[in-house]
Amino acid sequence: MATIKVGMADLNICKAPDMITTLGLGSCIGIALYDPVVKIGGLAHIMLPDSRQMRNNSNIAKFADTGIEELVRRVVAAGANKRRLVAKIAGGAKMFEVNGLSGIGNVGERNAIASREKLKQLGIPLLAEDTGLNFGRTVELYPATGEFYIKAVGKTRRII
């Protein structure tokens, strides 16, 4: 079994028996897509909610809107069926306390909302999520089972 690593503002796909992981999700969101029949999955590590609000938006994996679309495209190209895809998300923490009503203060919550909205728009059911609060997460997707492991410092390893 190989481990496929996804960096920040990056995405990739994976087939069973391999697993795919991304480290250090703070305000970022890890979006896992999975086809339970062919055991193909994918993972995106998105940093920002909306590519249309940035001038330098050439890295499509960086944004929820374009990253999720590209992840769907890649898992389908690898043999997944879009109608069978299901999703799980993690991350979106509020890592820094910011005074005032600054939009930058809760980019994690905005990332989670944008991810949910994009999945809904694409008709992909969101089966589970572990988002918010104030701690970072590392996630692992196992396409053989669809298990999405959430690891955080000082917390029990969870499966969602």
Key phrases:
about 160 residues; alpha+beta; five-stranded mixed beta sheet; 2 helices; 10 strands; globular
Structure report:
- By secondary structure, the chain is of the alpha+beta class.
- Helices cover 18% and strands 35% of the residues.
- The mean pLDDT is 93.
How far apart are the first and last residues' alpha carbons, in Å?
21 Å
The major beta sheet can be summarized as: 5 strands, mixed
Q: How helical, in percent, are the residues?
A: 10-25%
Output the number of helix runs: 2
Task: Strand order, main sheet: write it out.
Answer: 1-3-8-9-10
Global morphology = globular
Number of strands: 10
**Computed structural class:** alpha+beta
Taking pLDDT < 50 over at least 5 consecutive residues as the criterion, the unreliable ranges are none
SSE series:
EEEEEHEHEEEE
The whole-angstrom Rg is 15 Å
| Whole-number mean pLDDT | 93
Q: β content, as a range?
A: 35-45%
Would you kindly provide a brief summary of this structure?
Helix content is 18%, strand content 35%. The chain has 160 residues and is of the alpha+beta class.
Outline the secondary-structure elements.
Blueprint: E1 3-6, E2 10-15, E3 19-25, E4 29-35, E5 40-46, H1 64-77, E6 86-91, H2 107-121, E7 126-131, E8 137-142, E9 147-151, E10 158-159
Parallel strand pairs: 1-3, 6-7
Antiparallel strand pairs: 2-5, 3-8, 4-5, 4-6, 8-9, 9-10
Helix pairs in contact: 1-2
